[in-house]
Amino acid sequence: MIWCIFIVGVLLPQSLAHPGFFTSIGQMTDLIHTEKDLVTSLKDYIKAEEDKLEQIKKWAEKLDRLTSTATKDPEGFVGHPVNA
Q1: What is the pLDDT of residues 33-43, one digit of tens each?
Q2: DSSP of 38-67, one letter per residue?
Q3: In a domain, 67, yes or no
Q4: Which positions fall inside the Prolyl 4-hydroxylase N-terminal domain (predicted)?
């Protein structure tokens, strides 16, 4: 009788703990892969936004050159049919 209590009281709870341990390791492994995918997606998003920002900078530079040309001779710039 004492052996039955020993088996049920000591060995059974230990055997039940192991599947949970392996399940949590599997879940943590999945979480690491998900985190890696998230970081990759974040880097792709940042790259896309940097590309957009680069296009805006180029557009601003063109406008700056155009404004610089226009302010040197405003009457001549506005008087030109293409610029009017």
Answers
A1: 999 999 999 99
A2: HHHHHHHHHHHHHHHHHHHHHHHHHHHHHH
A3: yes
A4: 24-84
